[in-house]
Amino acid sequence: MSDAQVEVSEIHWLMDMFQTVDVGLVVLNCDYRIQVWNGFMESHSGLSPRQVRDRYLFDLFPEIDEDWLRRKCDPVLLLKNRAFTIWEQRPYIFKFRNYRPITGSADFMYQNSTIFPLTNTRGEVTNLCLIIYDVTDVAVSRLELESMNHRLHQLSKTDFLTQLHNRGSWENTLVQEYKRIQRHQHVSSLLMIDIDHFKRVNDDYGHAAGDEVIREIAKLVKKNLRETDIAGRYGGEEFAVLLVDTPEAQAMYFAERLRKSVEKTPIRHHEMSIQCSVSIGIAESARSMENHRQWIEQADKALYFSKANGRNRVTLASSMPSEEPETS
């Protein structure tokens, strides 16, 4: 085989590889007009090399952010350096649909890219080459892992029965709020809420009904919250609500609205209708409190005063008599 024949064969092989390689290959001139378009790009865009030849890239693909891509490419033209893009920064350059069955949850192909200069025989940069890598499998796996970790983190903070914050998560939030109001002299209020005669509910209707009562009252608590308020299940049939930047007078409005809402809402369990009420204690934050536990203790004392004085009522810690009666 002659040298000329070898060269022709090599060119044929290169062209065959160029068309069948599983990456996108695009060559642009310095005016961002398409000069070369391989089989990968044709397959995913639906446009043949003849259709894109000499077309202005940003006219043909208006979804590409021209300013962003030029900021990536212009230094390549000027400095003869390579540039790279990754899907974490921008999901794709070319908005190709994703057709892989394994990663079917992704609507579009996630892409990494390499951009490098092409020079003529005099060493002058005349063109840019973009290599487009399909990294959808990696991207989807990473995103699913991050989503799962986020869900696990949320589950670790959430009470399963009520979907409120669990005791640990809620108390951590209270600690942070206590530190904030001590630094900035803000005022917030803490509510402790207890379902009245809950043991009687379990005894009369069963523990499944008791769980339903806890769930439904938790829904009423959430329904009355503002976005900045934090509610948690403190334990058993007891809830805690932190009303941020809220003095006790405003907290009393919230508590009374919640108390009346519970009182007027019969809870359905199978064919049974269960009537419930709650007792509530409120404590406003004070500079004299040495730690967040003292805040909880003040709200707890107000709660037990409510329970000892007839239940289905709200008590402010600041309005309690100095000697409170025994809890019945």
TrEMBL record:
<dbReference type="InterPro" id="IPR050469">
    <property type="entry name" value="Diguanylate_Cyclase"/>
</dbReference>
<dbReference type="GO" id="GO:0043709">
    <property type="term" value="P:cell adhesion involved in single-species biofilm formation"/>
</dbReference>
<dbReference type="InterPro" id="IPR000014">
    <property type="entry name" value="PAS"/>
</dbReference>
<dbReference type="InterPro" id="IPR000160">
    <property type="entry name" value="GGDEF_dom"/>
</dbReference>
<dbReference type="InterPro" id="IPR035965">
    <property type="entry name" value="PAS-like_dom_sf"/>
</dbReference>
<dbReference type="GO" id="GO:0005886">
    <property type="term" value="C:plasma membrane"/>
</dbReference>
<dbReference type="Pfam" id="PF08448">
    <property type="entry name" value="PAS_4"/>
</dbReference>
<dbReference type="InterPro" id="IPR029787">
    <property type="entry name" value="Nucleotide_cyclase"/>
</dbReference>
<dbReference type="GO" id="GO:0052621">
    <property type="term" value="F:diguanylate cyclase activity"/>
</dbReference>
<dbReference type="InterPro" id="IPR013656">
    <property type="entry name" value="PAS_4"/>
</dbReference>
<dbReference type="GO" id="GO:1902201">
    <property type="term" value="P:negative regulation of bacterial-type flagellum-dependent cell motility"/>
</dbReference>
<feature type="domain" description="GGDEF">
    <location>
        <begin position="186"/>
        <end position="319"/>
    </location>
</feature>
<dbReference type="InterPro" id="IPR043128">
    <property type="entry name" value="Rev_trsase/Diguanyl_cyclase"/>
</dbReference>
<dbReference type="Pfam" id="PF00990">
    <property type="entry name" value="GGDEF"/>
</dbReference>
<protein>
    <recommendedName>
        <fullName>diguanylate cyclase</fullName>
        <ecNumber>2.7.7.65</ecNumber>
    </recommendedName>
</protein>
